[in-house]
Design a protein that fits this description.
- The protein has a domain at 2-183 and 218-245 and 284-294 and 318-327: NAD(P)-binding Rossmann-like Domain (Rossmann fold), CATH 3.40.50.
- Helix content is 43%, strand content 19%.
- It has twelve helices and 13 strands.
- It has helices at residues 11-22, 39-45, 65-74, 89-94, 96-117, 151-170, 192-202, 221-234, 251-262, 286-292, 300-313, 320-327, and strands spanning 2-6, 26-31, 55-59, 77-82, 121-127, 173-179, 181-183, 205-209, 215-216, 218-220, 238-243, 249-250, 267-271.
- The strands form four sheets. A seven-stranded parallel β-sheet has the order 3-2-1-4-5-6-11, with helices on both faces.
- α3 packs parallel to α5, α7 crosses α9 (251-262) and α7 (192-202) crosses α11.
- The protein binds nicotinamide-adenine-dinucleotide.
- Nicotinamide-adenine-dinucleotide binds next to α1, β2, α5, β5 and β7.
């Protein structure tokens, strides 16, 4: 069986690619290695996969329709896991049109290819901010969505609607996974836990928007990957499912946990809250427990321990670009 993972060189995608390869599947990765953060980190992420003969890499932009069609013609893709996106809420304020182009137009382009080429199963990485301001905590999938606070959140909600439309148009199985704040090895450099830890190691000041009381539902990468694998095995006709930990943590606790795990004292600068920030993000995970036997087993304490260990042991990206160039598909 062949899986297409879009954004497969990114944080979540690269973990998923590795897991699918371990299970013996053929995996095609489509990634543009965009400049949202250092592309060398993405080459590092897929370093192990590049050695695997069951892995193929297409370095291309999701919006290049002719390349996408070439990919679907070349491989018999059964399932698409669509993770490629412009990410980050505050960054989306600076380029709302660019976010729309990738997250909405790119998703539509991909879904249309799935329809043309008879893909059976589609999994979409949606995001907790689609709940917006309004619904009561913890967020449950059947809650009426509030107004998305950022262009990023709005594009993810639009992506969910496109998924529903294509479910109706061509009957493929579709699952929209509302991911909460995922962390762990390879986390995107701009995300809180990684950026805080890296700054602490360099003795630099970290910035907290608000007074540190904002709460986020941090979920460890391994738990998310288990959730995705379970979705791939179950193939629901159409579902929207939260993947979080169900245990919100205050930003101030993130800092104090990092201080304990790194034995470093953080220098903190407090700035006013940003308009795109929700006060609290907290997943109701009962649907995932019921449908997926989902059990996020890694506590925040344990997850941060593992993350800090990875960060302190990792090597800087080396000459992986050369290997990636050799493995690259030309379509
Ligand atoms: N990490 C989280 O906490 C989190 C939370 C909620 C939702 N998500 C969603 O999960 C997905 C993966 O997130 P991540 O944290 O791994 O991000 P990431 O930035 O590490 O991975 C995304 C990948 O998509 C690629 N990409 C971007 N635009 C592309 C395009 N036009 N064509 C092809 N590839 C493109 C990037 O190069 C990158 O490798 C995203 O859709 C994101 O919105 C992530």
């Amino acid at each position: 069986m062949t899986y297409l993972v879009t954004g497969g060189a990114g944080f979540i995608g690269s973990h998923l690619v590795e897991r699918l390869l371990q299970e013996g599947f053929e995996v095609v990765c489509l990634d543009s290695f965009d400049g949202s953060y250092d592309p060398a980190l993405k080459r590092e992420n897929i370093g192990t996969a590049l050695d695997n003969p069951s892995f193929s890499l297409l370095e291309a932009d999701l919006r290049q329709g002719f390349l996408l069609e070439g990919l679907f013609s070349k491989f018999d893709i059964d399932t698409v896991i669509h993770l490629a996106a412009r990410t980050g809420e505050s960054c989306s304020l600076k380029d709302p049109v660019g976010y729309g182009e990738v997250n909405v137009n790119g998703t539509a382009q991909l879904l249309e290819c799935c329809r043309k080429f008879g893909v059976k199963n589609f999994v979409f990485a949606s995001s907790a901010p689609v709940y917006g301001e309004g619904p009561k905590l913890p967020f449950a999938e059947d809650a009426e969505s509030g107004v998305p606070l950022s262009p990023y959140a709005a594009t993810k909600l639009a992506g969910e609607f496109l998924c529903q439309t294509y479910r109706r148009l061509c009957g493929m199985s579709v699952t929209c996974l509302r991911l909460f704040t995922v962390y762990g090895p390879r986390q995107r450099p701009k995300m809180a836990i990684r950026s805080f830890a890296e700054k602490m190691f360099k003795g630099e000041e970290i910035t907290i928007f608000g007074d540190g009381s904002l709460r986020r539902d941090y979920v460890y990468i391994d738990d998310v990957i288990e959730g995705i694998i379970s979705v791939l095995k179950k193939r629901f006709p159409f579902e929207v499912i939260n993947l979080g930990s169900g245990r919100p943590v205050q930003i101030s606790e993130v800092v104090s946990t990092l201080e304990r795990k790194t034995t470093l004292k953080a220098k903190v600068e407090y700035l006013p809250p940003q308009p795109v920030e929700m006060e609290a993000i907290w997943a109701d995970i009962s649907k995932a427990e019921r449908l997926l036997d989902y059990e996020p087993g890694v506590s925040f304490e344990e997850g941060v321990t593992r993350f800090v260990k990875w960060l302190t042991e990792r090597q800087e990206p080396s000459a992986l670009k050369v290997v990636a160039e050799e493995k690259k598909l030309s379509i």
